[in-house]
Amino acid sequence: MVAFGLVATAAATTTGTLTFREARTGVLQQSQDAVIRQLRTQVSQRAPELGFPPDRSALQRLASDVAATEGQGHWRVLVTFRKLSAPSVPGDRFEELTPAVREAVGSSRATVFQRVRRDGRTSLVVGMSVTFGAPDGRHLASGVQVFLVVPQTTEQAYVDALVTAVERALVPALVLAVALALLAARGVLLPVRALRHATRSIAEGRLDTRLAVNGSDELADLSHTFNETAAALEASVTELREMEARARRFAADVSHELRTPLAAMSAVTDVLDEDAARLAPDTATAVRLISEETVKLARLVDDLMEMSRFDAGAAVLHLDEIDLAESVRRTLATRGWSDSVQTDLPAPDALRGRVDPRRLDVVVANLVGNALRHGTRPVRVRLHARDAAGAGRLAVIEVRDSGPGIPDAVLPHVFERFYKSDSARARSEGSGLGLSITAENVRMHGGTVRAANHPAGGAVFTVELPLRRDDLSQENPT
């Protein structure tokens, strides 16, 4: 719109300027030609009466007669001969008469004219030499020079009227140009604005957004293409969601169906473990292997069931205000890690928080177990509180091992499901879901968990949980 307005303004201004210049030139040229023609006629008629050489009275008479031919009395005439000069108005100094005009008249037999502006007024100065014809046909200078000064007030009024007319015509032209620019811009911007809103709606997840297609121009083609793209995207996303839902249901159903036979298998392996000492060595080894694998399978099924609850939004928090340091100590003691893990915990009841004790136990157990399996001892657990801008007080749990750390390429993926940094490992002690479950449990508490490499070596996992979140819902935030 701005470009259209600028082009229209430039075009209107240029047209007005050119029109004004041509009209001004025409007005001044016409006036100038009429004055010069009339002056030549009057001088030609009265010059023979001068006599030669003319005296001052003859020069005065010629000046007066020529000036009197203009009925309104605007002409001022000066007639000179050598050192004699006679103005039509006594005492007139003819200040408009420049030395350049005098010199041009004296050196040429042609009529000379010049426009002179003085004291805010424009005058036309005309000069000519009086000649007489020789027997051989030549025109000889008589030495008499006639100068005429005509004020151009009428012509200036015409020019001013032209300026006013151009200005008055320019303003409506600009208004019309702006109106046309607005109409053109509206015709372009409305579909573009609608496309922007539709794109934003798609980005916000409203995949059923469509554009109204009007006309057959490029914008209509763009709207049609947008609708086709949105429809294809909606179909693809719907299909992916259905596939994801089926996969989640499958994992949940499989996990649920496996729990019953696993419970029976676990009971049998418990009995076999008790009698393994009385069995043959090969049989005892097989029994222990079956028992270990059954425990791993039971753990995997439990993890899958937990993830299916997260995905279904069925996981709930059972909040209770507990001593966080005591909870960490109990987690380590229950799993027999008290001697294997170095702790830096606050004094009893020094740091309390409103959390789900079972889920906090899972978080600490998963992080410490991961450090013991994949890192190098000693493993250190530190618990402290800190103030965070805009988030109140936070309980910070840090679990650090002394191993080589986590490769940079692996760090962004450590909390992904079933992710293993070593793709060559077909099997491992863990299920590949421990850190994912940890992240979900922390998120349910409104906290954050991140993985990094410590400057002094080893991997460090940091959990930040808000303290005393009395407004935290008992339901899964998702």
TrEMBL record:
Superkingdom, taxonomy of origin: Bacteria
Record domain HAMP: where: 186-238
This enzyme's EC code(s): 2.7.13.3
Reaction(s) catalysed by this chain's protein: ATP + protein L-histidine = ADP + protein N-phospho-L-histidine
Annotated signal peptide: none
Enzyme class name: transferase
A Gene Ontology term for the protein's cellular component: plasma membrane
Localization, UniProt: Cell membrane
Keyword line: ATP-binding, Cell membrane, Kinase, Membrane, Nucleotide-binding, Phosphoprotein, Transferase, Transmembrane, Transmembrane helix, Two-component regulatory system
Membrane topology: Multi-pass membrane protein
Molecular-function GO term, any one: ATP binding
Histidine kinase domain residues: 253-469
Name of the protein this chain belongs to: histidine kinase
Organism: Streptomyces shenzhenensis
